[in-house]
Amino acid sequence: MALCMRKSPKLINHLKYRMGLFDMITPSSWNSTSSHHQEFLVTAPIAHNLGNPDADLSVKATLFSACRFKSTKPEKQLNSLNDADDNKVLDFPGGKVRFSPKMTFISESPEERTQCYRVLDDNGQLILGSNLVQVGEELAVKMYTEMITLQTMDTLFYEAQRQGRISFYLTTIGEEAINIATAAALTADDHVFPQYREPGVLLWRGFTLQEFANQCFVNKADHGKGRQMPIHYGSNKHNYFTVSSTIATQLPHAVGAAYALKMDRKDACAVTYFGDGGSSEGDFHAALNFAAVLEAPVIFICRNNGWAISTPTSDQFRSDGVVVRGSAYGVRSIRVDGNDALAIYGAVHAARKMAITEHRPILIEALTYRVGHHSTSDDSTKYRPVDEIEWWKLARDPVSRFRKWIESKDWWSSEAESEFRSSVRQQLLHAIQVAEKAEKPPVADIFTDVYDVPPSNLHEQEKLLRETIRRHPRDYPSDVPA
Amino acid sequence: MATIVGAATALSASKSFNSRKLHLRSRRSLSVSERKGSFLVVRSDGSVVHKAHRAQKLIANAVATKADSSAASTASKPGHELLLFEALREGLEEEMDRDPTVCVMGEDVGHYGGSYKVTKGLATKYGDLRVLDTPIAENSFTGMGIGAAMTGLRPIVEGMNMGFLLLAFNQISNNCGMLHYTSGGQFKIPIVIRGPGGVGRQLGAEHSQRLESYFQSIPGIQMVACSTPYNAKGLMKAAIRSENPVILFEHVLLYNLKERIPDEEYVCSLEEAEMVRPGEHVTILTYSRMRYHVMQAAKTLVNKGYDPEVIDIRSLKPFDLHTIGNSVKKTHRVLIVEECMRTGGIGASLTAAITENFNDYLDAPIICLSSQDVPTPYAGTLEEWTVVQPAQIVTAVEQLCQ
């Protein structure tokens, strides 16, 4: 494929013209450093401007041969395509790649871990040079009060479980900032697909304390009609999809919802939450991949809180957390300080805009710590040191950090604090009392909603059950209306 | 999990067809309602003839036409002939025209047209977004379908082979069947999950799965199995219109069945069984491909003087115990012929249901003919013997009627 270089000036001009790169290639550029050549090769759309593949090949050959005269060894003339220092491009399905004769493995861990976006320091002071989304007084106070509400709700319901009044509970202690700040940055139209540690999002959207209590106490007023465990909230009114116990299954759901929103061209996105453990599930990988391929407007929020029940992240994955996986799937990602409410607010705000206007998924890894036990069925002191838990609870509490910031702006005071806390506590205690005394769901609700209309076999089974209850009333709870 | 072998086997038969019919595809798909004036007949050798309208009585074939809704299928309109996969496509297309929220997702359903050509041409007509090619992750695109359904779409998820949906079992069992219930009726999941299954021609064990028995227990889903072009189109439409999640089982070897179906719109009922051949002596219950083995055996039985009643149960969950019950009350003998494995198969479940409900009407124990509890072998002769053959059916009827 050697071409005579006598024609080179004309040829190069011809090439420049053909490729629209007049500015970039000058004869002197052939002499420039290899990095320049590399840049040229990678960014210039060599083949795309030339429709004819044969022309492409000949142009390439010309280029290579033109460069070849700058390199040295004559015996390499036979392998012109493979050989020249600066022109190494291969054309595989999926696009052009440069190749290299030097065998290099990409390291399994980066030299430096991905940096973490944070704007408030541990004392609630704004870090100099931070770029953040402004949060006004009203919004900031609302965020703070909702965080306290969430904390109080968690404390009281947890105690209720310990007293045997509800069967199960799961707290969000330590992750209040993630819950509330993400919700604050979204709109009511965004579809939320939670894992189970995000009741704060529902709280923000207007689910009342009484509704939370009804679900936990499993009474007739529960929107779920008593069919799920406590904390498995769901409300179509608030675009909060019912919690399903299975890990990470909500990720593909979110992609599907984003696909629906994209088809309907709505100004809304899908948002889904999961933990560090959930990122090991197959559904995580496929959902990210799908979202990238479909260009679906979905925000993936990973609450990396260090623990998946008793499994620490060092046993969960060996990558640099979850954020690096985004780029593996072609998803734009960011790592955020999960205990910094302002940083989260800003990141989600920006992510939402990108997701909707650019039709792309975004991955946000919020680093945080699970201060509470996994659930009421867990005692985390069995697998982690108590002082570690205590330190995170006191020194790195996201709620107090945010309070320091709003107090420094004179938007909050300790009087307001005690007043609000006692008021919320009263409301919650009242809600619990009401929920506990309320009627339980009726037997008929065992059989409805399995299908849109109960089929004959379910009618029959209901009849059989009622018969049995009637005959053996002592074997069945007395407070369930037949 | 894309299989090249399986798809190639099924496609090679229809490839010659499709290439010739390609230029007619546009006319067919555009003129769904215009077909009354003329119709196209595709012969088995692949040639296509354009016939002018003339009154024609329905060609009776070995598979009898439906007993009910006969107004649609009898002779006033001649109807049009097509293959089962085309009937599926026609049903799909009509529903996609009718309702803009209907969409399809699966592997190779878009530009490739589906590995069994059920979605051929739809991507060109409706666009890439409504007929979506997905990456290879069955659990996840089924999950995606569930999420889309909860958000207001009506997706149809195609498994390239039903066996691949084993990967989707988590989503189907834990979410698809459950979320309407656990959300207290707040979120509905009007999804259709369909695909070919059953024992084909030497597709190997992994591609010869019969999943209907695994899915049967899942509360909250409905299951139907189609067996003729008529009921394929009708069930497809009914499944799409249903508010419940429906799993539609097709069979790899039935895609090229030809039948004349009505021009006018019709929908089959998801919960009804089909009376294939009324009779007096014995009730034979079957579905999907075994229907044809049973009808073949029926010919032999009729020659031997028996009068079998053949019912294609069609609805695998729930069973149409009304039709089945009436038949049992008439004949007092039941033979179940299925392709599932013996243990835990549809037949096992059906035997239990009949015994529970109609025990007094039975003159003899129910006989259930199923495949053995073995993975389907590849060798052709071995494979033939894992599937119930007409000779076995004849013997079983003779035994029942002693």
UniProtKB/TrEMBL annotation, chain A:
Domain spans labelled Dehydrogenase E1 component: 146-442
Organism field: Quercus rubra (Northern red oak)
Annotated PANTHER family: 2-OXOISOVALERATE DEHYDROGENASE SUBUNIT ALPHA 2, MITOCHONDRIAL, 2-OXOISOVALERATE DEHYDROGENASE SUBUNIT ALPHA, MITOCHONDRIAL
Keyword Mitochondrion recorded: yes
GO biological process: branched-chain amino acid catabolic process
Keywords tagged on the record: Metal-binding, Mitochondrion, Oxidoreductase, Potassium, Transit peptide
EC numbers for this chain: 1.2.4.4
Enzyme class: oxidoreductase
Reaction catalysis annotation: N(6)-[(R)-lipoyl]-L-lysyl-[protein] + 3-methyl-2-oxobutanoate + H(+) = N(6)-[(R)-S(8)-2-methylpropanoyldihydrolipoyl]-L-lysyl-[protein] + CO2
A family per Pfam: E1_dh
CDD domains listed in its UniProt record: TPP_E1_PDC_ADC_BCADC
UniProt name for this protein: 3-methyl-2-oxobutanoate dehydrogenase (2-methylpropanoyl-transferring)
Assigned protein family: Belongs to the BCKDHA family.
Cofactor dependence: thiamine diphosphate
Subunit structure as annotated in this protein's UniProt entry: Heterotetramer of alpha and beta chains.
Automatic annotation (TrEMBL), chain B:
Domain of life: Eukaryota
Gene3D superfamilies linked: 3.40.50.920, 3.40.50.970
Coiled-coil regions listed in the entry: none
Keyword set includes DNA damage: no
Keywords tagged on the record: Chloroplast, Metal-binding, Oxidoreductase, Plastid, Potassium, Pyruvate, Thiamine pyrophosphate, Transit peptide
Keyword Plastid listed: yes
SMART domains linked to this entry: Transket_pyr
Signal sequence range: none
Subcellular location: Plastid, Chloroplast
Boundaries of every Transketolase-like pyrimidine-binding domain copy: 82-257
Enzyme Commission number(s) of this protein: 1.2.4.1
Entry-linked InterPro entries: THDP-binding, Transketo_C/PFOR_II, Transketolase-like_Pyr-bd, Transketolase_C
Gene Ontology MF term list: metal ion binding; pyruvate dehydrogenase (acetyl-transferring) activity
Database matches in Pfam families: Transket_pyr (PF02779), Transketolase_C (PF02780)
Enzymatic reactions: N(6)-[(R)-lipoyl]-L-lysyl-[protein] + pyruvate + H(+) = N(6)-[(R)-S(8)-acetyldihydrolipoyl]-L-lysyl-[protein] + CO2
GO cellular component: chloroplast
Names of the cofactor(s): thiamine diphosphate
Assembly and binders: Tetramer of 2 alpha and 2 beta subunits.
Known role: The pyruvate dehydrogenase complex catalyzes the overall conversion of pyruvate to acetyl-CoA and CO(2). It contains multiple copies of three enzymatic components: pyruvate dehydrogenase (E1), dihydrolipoamide acetyltransferase (E2) and lipoamide dehydrogenase (E3).
Protein name per UniProt: pyruvate dehydrogenase (acetyl-transferring)
Species: Quercus rubra (Northern red oak)
